[in-house]
Write a structure and sequence with these properties.
heterodimer, A: elongated, B: alpha+beta, Beta-Lactamase, 2 domains, 5-stranded antiparallel beta sheet, 7 helices, 59% helix
Chain lengths: 102, 194
């Protein structure tokens, strides 16, 4: 079971590393404006997630107390919710600009 | 607006079926008339109307405001422009007073458009579109390409340019710079308002 957890953590780190590269590449293409500001926030969140993911195997290795683990899990939930909120905002603005949304 | 666009606008008035501009020799300068009216018919009518107009002018010693001829199913109203005439084809029972009221601004603009064309100057709407493009280039610099594409697609009609201005402002606010969006919106609207 522990090895499965390590494997999942490793996979998550790889996927998030790819996300970091993609987000930074797109950041160069976005000049600024409201979408640019949101993209900066999104990139920051992706970096926070990435460093969190990097540390997650250590949480397993050092067997941190359950209380801290809860804190970590709900922290990830919170940042995940903010992340989804920002993504929805960007999509809404893009659709508004494309006149697909009023 | 260009002369053709103005004639189209006049033709859009209730009861009007066509409009054309001709000079004193009967040469058609611009037209927006139904296809079933052949060019030679129009030129003939224009020549006769121009001569009639000049005849009336000589007899009265002043330029008549209009000549109004009613045929079977057609009415032709000719109004003088600065150096030419405007012929309006309409239904016989048209309300002329209302027609005058609705077409007056367009007739004035038509006179100005003709003067610009005769002087070899670009039409006023083309000048305005060029000023808008220059304003976009100045405000957005290297990021002006997409905005210029929007302007080019909009053409030169005022309503389309107003729409393009809104679109460029939104695009700038979303993707380039919030402050510049407000600035470019103000500049473009002041150009549109003349």
């Amino acid at each position: 079971m522990l090895y499965v957890a390590y494997a999942l953590s490793g996979l998550a780190i790889v996927v998030m590393a790819v996300d970091v590269i993609l987000a930074l590449r797109l950041k160069r293409a976005i000049v600024g404006g409201e979408v640019g500001e949101k993209w900066n926030l999104l990139t920051t969140l992706i970096l926070v997630f990435f460093f969190g993911y990097l540390l997650s195997p250590m949480a397993l290795f050092f067997q941190i107390p359950t209380d801290y683990l809860y804190l970590l899990v709900f922290g990830v939930f919170l940042f995940g919710a903010v992340f989804v909120f920002v993504v929805i905002g960007i999509i809404r603005q893009a659709l508004t600009f494309m006149r697909l949304l009023k | 607006m260009g002369m053709e666009a103005l004639l189209e606008a006049i033709t859009g008035c209730t009861g009007v079926t066509g409009a054309f501009v001709f000079d004193s020799s009967g040469r058609i300068r611009a037209r927006a008339v139904p296809d079933h009216l052949a060019d030679d018919q129009l030129v003939y009518a224009a020549r006769v109307m121009a001569q009639t107009f000049l005849g009336v002018e000589r007899a009265r010693r002043r330029k008549p405001a209009r000549i109004d001829l009613v045929f079977g199913t057609l009415r032709l109203i000719v109004r003088p422009l600065s150096d030419a005439f405007l012929g309006i084809l309409c239904t016989p029972r048209i309300n002329v007073a209302l027609l005058d009221l609705t077409t007056l601004p367009m007739v004035r603009e038509l006179g100005q458009a003709m003067e610009r064309r005769d002087a070899g100057l670009p039409a006023a709407d083309t000048v305005r579109a060029d000023r808008l493009k220059a304003a976009v280039r100045e405000a957005l610099g290297d990021h002006a390409d997409k905005a210029l594409e929007i302007l080019a697609a909009a053409g030169t009609a005022e309503a389309d340019l107003v729409g393009a201005t809104d679109e460029i402002e939104t695009m700038t606010r979303l993707f380039i710079d919030r402050k510049k969006a407000a600035e470019i919106g103000r500049t473009m609207r002041s150009i549109l308002e003349g």
